[in-house]
From TrEMBL:
CDD domains: TAF6C (cd08050). GO terms for biological process: RNA polymerase II preinitiation complex assembly. It is found in: Nucleus. It comes from the Eukaryota. The keyword Plastid does not apply. InterPro entries: TAF6, TAF6_C, TAF6_C_sf. The keyword Isomerase does not apply. Keywords: Nucleus, Transcription, Transcription regulation. One of its GO terms (cellular component) is SAGA complex. Its main location: nucleus. Signal peptide: none annotated. This is TATA-box binding protein associated factor 6 like.
């Protein structure tokens, strides 16, 4: 038997050694886990079953072991369903909306659970959408003003973005397209909203209005050119206010405009949208995309403008639109005269389609004059003048600058 003092001394040393062993074991586990993370080993197959492991006890004592079934090598050799190798590790992503609640719709579906919002937000969403898409212009103006200044509608951002994405379904209605662009503009101007990942969704919807041949553009009486101008300005505003330089949004927009401009199959209204889009993004975009492509593009445009057949009247009118947009982006008309009294500086492209049996139709397009910096003239390219000059041009009774074209 040990004395009390010896037992106390042995107990103290034993406790110290036991604590040291526990700490060493913990260090070993932490180091092993960290090492495995650095090495990043492949997933181990065969040990991830959710079924309970069967255990059996031996007859000689209370000893349990995992039961393993016997494998018949003959059946395995003659089997036709040869197991394949381990599949590659994959990651599946599921999107949750708003406050983190998982959506019940299939992956990629638009959230229809508007009822998850509070009653006040739900009423606000319904009233604003009905006011903007309704028939009362004064009510629409009030709704848009509140939409661009309300600080408590962050939860409604994905729903309004979804409303704006409906431009494809109303491409036949210019008025509805203008109203959807107004909603997008109000969201962009709201200083309390962080668009975040919704910027690309808005850019896609606005770019559709700029570049695509809308169903409303089939009728020449529909002024879809104004819609493209407004959408181009909104596209520029979205980029300059919410575009992250590191996100690649600028290059994505330029690539979309360049593809449309370089595609000769696209209609002239799409080419017009590409030109006004480049002009809205600034002179650097014009210098980077339009100027290098202008010498190639001008041949096709000149062929359209030199076609004097009456059947080509509408296409030729669209060609004048594209030509005027190129002049505006180029800075054409600078220094042609002073500012008109009481008005903005503008210039006009006008002309008449002349046929053998009829006078044809009159073309007249007014463009705002370029007020960009003076360095644009450094990249000036001499654009060929269109039209015949054998007869004196008609004097248009307007205070703005005019480019008379006798076609």
């Amino acid at each position: 038997e040990l004395s009390h003092n010896v037992a106390a001394n042995v107990t103290e040393k034993t406790a110290a050694r036991f604590g040291r062993c526990c700490r060493d074991a913990a260090k070993h586990c932490v180091g092993r886990t960290a090492g495995q993370r650095r090495v990043s080993p492949q997933a181990v197959c065969g040990y991830g079953s959710q079924d309970a492991l069967p255990f059996r006890a031996i007859k000689e004592g209370e000893l349990y072991f995992q039961e393993e079934r016997e494998v018949n090598l003959v059946e395995l050799a003659l089997a036709t369903n040869i197991p394949k190798g381990c599949a590659e590790t994959a990651v599946r992503v599921h999107v949750s909306y708003l406050d983190g609640k998982g959506n019940l719709e299939p992956q990629g579906a638009v959230p229809s659970a508007v009822s998850t919002l509070t009653d006040d937000l739900l009423k606000y969403y319904q009233h604003v959408t009905r006011a903007v898409l309704g028939d009362d212009p004064q009510l629409m103006k009030v709704a848009l003003q509140d939409l661009q200044s309300n600080s408590k509608i962050a939860a409604l951002l994905p729903y309004f973005v979804y409303v704006v994405s409906g431009v494809k379904s109303v491409s036949h209605d210019l008025e509805q397209l203008h109203r959807l662009l107004h909603i997008a503009g109000s969201l962009v101007q709201n200083p309390f909203l962080c668009l975040g990942s919704y910027v690309r969704s808005l850019v896609a919807s606005v770019t559709y209005c700029v570049l695509e041949p809308l169903a409303a553009s089939i009728n020449p009486l529909n002024d879809h050119w104004t819609l493209r101008d407004a959408a181009a300005m909104l596209l520029s505003r979205i980029f300059w206010t919410h575009g992250d330089p590191g996100s690649g949004l600028y290059h994505q927009i330029l690539l979309s405009l360049q593809k449309v401009l370089a595609d000769p199959v696209r209609p002239l209204c799409s080419h017009y949208g590409a030109v006004v889009g480049l002009h809205a993004l600034g002179w650097k975009a014009v210098e980077r995309v339009l100027y290098p492509h202008l010498s190639t593009y001008w041949g096709g445009l000149q062929a359209v403008l030199d076609d004097y057949s009456v059947s080509n009247a509408q296409v030729k009118a669209d060609g004048h639109k594209v030509y005027g947009a190129i002049l505006v982006s180029h800075g054409g008309g600078d220094g042609a005269g002073g500012r008109a009294e009481g008005g903005t500086r503008r210039f006009i492209i006008a002309g008449r389609q002349v046929g053998r049996r009829c006078q044809g139709r009159l073309f007249q397009t007014s463009f705002p004059q370029h007020h960009g910096p003076g360095h644009v003239s450094r990249y000036a390219q001499k654009l060929p003048m269109i039209g015949r000059t054998a007869r004196p041009p008609r004097r248009w009774a307007r205070s703005e600058y005019s480019l008379g074209l006798l076609l």
